[in-house]
Design goal:
The chain has helices spanning 8-20, 343-346, and strands at 31-38, 45-50, 56-61, 64-69, 74-79, 84-89, 94-99, 104-110, 113-120, 128-132, 137-142, 147-151, 158-163, 168-173, 178-183, 188-193, 198-204, 211-217, 222-227, 231-236, 241-247, 255-260, 270-275, 279-287, 290-298, 303-309, 314-319, 335-341. It is globular. A 4-stranded antiparallel beta sheet has the order 1-28-27-26. The protein has a 4-stranded antiparallel beta sheet with strand order 2-3-4-5, with no helix packed on it. Strands 6-7-8-9 form a 4-stranded antiparallel beta sheet, with no helix packed on it. The protein has a domain at 50-204: 7 Propeller (Methylamine Dehydrogenase, Chain H), CATH 2.130.10. Helix content is 5%, strand content 52%. Strand 18 and strand 19 form a beta hairpin.
Amino acid sequence: MRIRSRIARAGAVLAALAAATGVALAGPFPYRVQHRIALTGTAPVRALAAGPGAQHVYAAVGDEVRSFDLTGQAGSRVKLPGVVTGLAAGAGDTLYAVVGAPARLVILSVRPLHVVVSVSLHAGAPSAVVFDPVADELFAESQAGHSVTRLDPGTGRRLGVVRLQGELMQMASNGRGTLYLANAERNALDVIDADRMAFSGDIPLARCRAPSGLAMDTLGRRLFVGCGNGRELIVDADLGYTFVTLPIQRAASLQAAFAFHPLGHAGWKGGTFVAGGSEVDAIRMYAFVRYAGGGRLALTRPATALASNPAAGELWLAEAPRAAAGADDEGAGPQLLVLGPSCAEASR
């Protein structure tokens, strides 16, 4: 059964509430570039994750996981058995990485940074990993294998696999046993029952083409969907109802991140940031039923990874290596941007 807004009256009430709050005018982008870190080599940064305690951010660069402090100063690094395709911060001092070939899950400790466990994955080369700290659940996605695997967060042991159809993109978990996946081919969100590891249905996305970026506000039960045709959809996860649509950039591949108080208690209540081909778009949350565009930040190169570090008031972004440049060309490698509050937001 397809998951739709089966309760028309509830959907109408939600739409009325959203309309009644008014639509705020889009403001300037709330972050500015505080640090720009040039990396050597031609391998792109495929994933970023804010580490435990919000004091370090970790980057997947080729076959390495590298650490950086909040000023962008490079720290320790560790080599893994292949190209790292996904990163996720776990509980305590744990970090999870997935390697595409050979297909593996690697569990790391960050104090100091080192490999603790490395286990084989058998449902296709992994393309992403997500850890849900509330439900203590770990998932590895395989675009090539059209699958999602649930894994034990402590040992990496496989707990279940679900096979899906379509082009699987970014994942988000709700902390209550449900996993959502943006499906770019089917223009929908696939819904997974994590306890049974079974496909529960989908949420169709009206007027959305090629959804790829996905983030979730687990408290407000809102899904933020970045669509390739230049739309950001805000979906009520309980009803499967899209009640806000805002303009964003057009891009074939988007990444999204949500955070409460991303600029501290003096700034926004919450915000979603969507990075892709040419810019970062911000969506500002005024209330659970009231959102508006929060400005755009232009990029010099396509974005390849995005991570919010709200405890530190930072947003981290990776830009791709410069096209057609050699490994020895100065400034040709990927770049990390550390974004902090703009002067206007920091002074509020």
